[in-house]
Amino acid sequence: MDELSKQGRPVDEVIAELTEKRANDVKWADGKTFGMVYDGGPSVHEVAEQAARLYLHENALNTQAFPSLAAIQREVVGWTSALLNGDDDVAGFLTSGGTESILCAVLAARKRAAAERGVIAPEIVLPETAHAAFHKAADNFGLIVRKVAVKADYTADVDAMALAVNENTALVVGSAPQYPQGVQDDIPAIAALAQSVGASCHVDACMGGFVLPFAERLGREVSPWDFRVDGVTTISADIHKLGYAPKGVSVILHRTKELRKYQTFVFGDWLGGFYASPNMQGTRSGLPMACAWAVMQHLGIDGYVDLTRQTLINADKMRAGIMAIDGIKVLGDGQFHLVAMASDPDASGTPVDAFALGDALLERGWYHDRQTPPDNLHSTVSNTNSGVIDDYLTDLEACVAAVRGDTTDDRSTTYATLE
Ligand SMILES: *Cc1c(COP(=O)(O)O)cnc(C)c1O
Predict the structure, then answer these.
(1) Does the C-beta of 173 come closer than 6 Å to ligand 1?
(2) What is the dihedral of CA 165, 171, 175, 181, to 10 degrees?
(3) 154 CA distance to ligand 1 centroid (A)?
(4) In terms of CB atoms within 10 Å, which of 75, 393, 398, 415 comes out highest?
(5) pLDDT tens digits for 194-245?
(6) 46 CA distance to ligand 1 centroid (A)?
(7) Where are the N6-(pyridoxal phosphate)lysine modifications (predicted)?
(8) Res 160: pLDDT
(9) Cβ partners under 8 Å of residue 181, min gap 6
(10) Residue whose CA is closest, atom 4 of ligand 1?
(11) Is the distance from CB of 237 to CB of 213 less than 8 angstroms?
């Protein structure tokens, strides 16, 4: 184990080494990474960088000491609620990301079920496509997960979910859209199911929260998913994804302030003083909150509509291009910005191994996440990929031809890592 240098090092030297360290990181700025980094363009970088400099050191743990951060949180939450058609009763908080928003929603549902219905062995009912963060939340907070297989089109099988709902159900989950194949669940049916037992209903719009409202403004057909749907109690929406803010910020919204109480923690019996905490964090960086505020102010609705138009052009083009290549296909009928690409079992000729294809694409600089079953390559398409889709499809066609009949021994799928 290396030890920290005793006498420290000059600024220039430190920064030079950090710069060097990044040499092997994915080169997202060239648009060849599908996910992880969301590039809203030069002026979005500029406004975020300046906001970051202003708020690098501020602490949102105590919003009495930093009233600007209370205002920033209130305003960003309010704008997001309005985008999601919430009324004045909707209340929420900023969190550090989608996972934390989901942890908050699951905890609130558990506490609500205990308080209102006396549930002591709470359960979550979710489709198998719901994000891994719900399993993390259940593991952390001691809920039983009832995981239900999805239909052939990868959307939630609500009839099957109905068989899993019972008097211990604290939360029923749907996604708009879900991550793996990017299709949207039937939120009205899921919310009605939750209501039938008095449970909470969470809509995971971590991906869709800053896409669907603008897709709707572009005249796309978007089936109901937001606070216009009766029975939806919480929604998560990640500003650090298609909201184009830098990492570390998401929104959790509750239908009412009363429901929001189930997520907060207040403690008055500590020698350190009265302690109130809205989410999972204690000390909270003001930086991502200020960046989110600045990026949203800078873009406005029109800016987001433009970015969404471009994103959907990219995704539609990618889907059409994949479908036109013999040997591969798109999984599910996703209409938005997520694309899962797999081998086409109905294709003529030698089969294509999706992971061997992923290796070949990576050699040409294209980075996809891998998932299974079935083995497939996942893309979160965004404005980041504007201007490269034609090149991508040319490389894709060449790679499909090159890997036909090849397989790779590496069958691992990695969405996140520990070290
Ligand atoms: C990204 C994502 C999450 C988790 O969010 P993090 O910001 O990675 O913690 C949850 N649900 C969906 C649908 C997502 O796309």
Answers:
(1) no
(2) -60
(3) 18
(4) 393
(5) 999 999 999 999 999 999 999 999 999 999 999 999 999 999 999 999 999 9
(6) 25
(7) 241
(8) 98
(9) 129, 154, 331, 332, 334, 338, 340
(10) 98
(11) no
For the segment(s) 300-403, the CATH number from 3.60.10.10, 1.10.10.10, 3.30.70.260, 3.90.1150.10 is 3.90.1150.10
pTM for the complete prediction?
0.96
Residue the block writes with tokens 């009233």:
67
Question: Ligand 1 center to residue 27 CA distance, Å?
Answer: 21
Q: How many CA atoms lie within 13 A of 76 on its CB side?
A: 32
Using a 6 Å cutoff on CB, does residue 377 contact ligand 1?
no
Rounded to whole angstroms, what are the CA distances from 33 to 1, 155, 289, 342?
Answer: 33, 26, 25, 18
Enumerate residues 6+ apart whose C-beta is below 8 A from 15.
none
Query: 254 and 232 in contact (C-beta within 8 Å)?
Result: no
Q: Distance between CA 64 and CA 399 in Å, rounded?
A: 57
Nearest residue to 209 via CA among 193, 232, 189: 232
Q: How far is CA 145 from the centre of its chain?
A: 20
Does domain 47-298 fall under CATH 3.40.640.10? My reply is yes
